Amino acid sequence: MDFIAWMHETSRLAGDEVEATLRAAQIGDISACAVHAKPAATIFLRRYLEAVGASRSGQDVVSLLEAAARCDRYFGRLRAEAALLDAGTGSGADAEGIAEALKEVRFMAMGRAGAALGFSVDSLAPGRCDPRLKTLVTHATTADRAVSIFAHSALYSFRQCLRMGLLSGEPIGAKYLLDPRRLADFVGFGPVSNYHAGEKVANSQRKGLVDEELTEDYQPSVRLFFRRTEIESLPGFDDDGLHHFMVRDQVGLDLLVCAVFPSQRARDEALAGMRQLARRERYAPRCLVAPPACCGGPQDYVRVTNEMVAASLG
Known about the structure:
alpha+beta, two-stranded antiparallel sheet
């Protein structure tokens, strides 16, 4: 079964109920939110169970979720959300809480169906990734955000950035992609493949919209590389079954293996923002600059900068 086709069909089947749920949540209509969220959740769970060849005869969200959890342990994380959706207005939750519960079920069903059906980001990559890079994970950010990261010697979650006055508004994913709001509490990392998902995220942050194609006004990101074992060992590390790596609240820049900047100017500005000269001198050798010829498009930029990082590992 083709996962992309499965995903589009699932979105079509649940679309009206999801949209009605989100409209109701926006105006705080708890009753309407509950009425539409439950059938939407059952569609997502039944579609997942169908994809993995399991029984999907349950009529309520809890029983469908338990059937999904028997197939995939990650669904067990959502027992509270399933109970809330079944209880509806009797749960005591507000409209936003009901909508968030639906988003969690949708997110898990879509993501874990992809895993079950063999979908992989690496399958979208235009070429194989150097084996030396499999020990690393990466975080892509804008040049402006890199200045702040180096100045604070840490990557912060969106929520932490709000508390510190470094950002405003709401996360791009929550606004446009139906991401659960809990993701704002985490710093995310992706695989160091030749797929340019990180470039989409970085350009979306810069432009304030989700640019899936990256055909207009593309600006290369700053790519930060870390050892996956060190990220996994952090106290705030969380494995939700959907993201490559997530760490709650913040990740210290002292774990940085190397960084690739799209220009010498971007590199110099980031390093200049570091308050301590000794720290700046320690990080400078880890900061590489991509050749201008590769900066015109995300595919070339990711491929060439991956090669630079692999070469720097020796």
